[in-house]
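FORM 7B: Structural annotation worksheet

SECTION A. Query
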Amino acid sequence: MGQSFHNRPADFTDAEVESLRLKLLDAAGRMTEDQVLKLADSLHEVMRRRRGSRSFQRVEMKL
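SECTION B. Predicted structure
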């Protein structure tokens, strides 16, 4: 969990990330499927931006 993209220093400790993860899982249990998907999509978008959308480039190359 301590690893981040592009060698960015982590702003959260592993314990803080674990606490946040557990809180999100608890909240997700009370959310609609659409709300969970919106949250997941937003987190995936953060990852795609950090990676420079390489995942999209790979998909386009296969097509």
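SECTION C. Observations
Helices lie at 14-28, 33-51, 54-62. The two ends are 33 Å apart (CA to CA).

SECTION D. Sign-off
Analyst initials: ____
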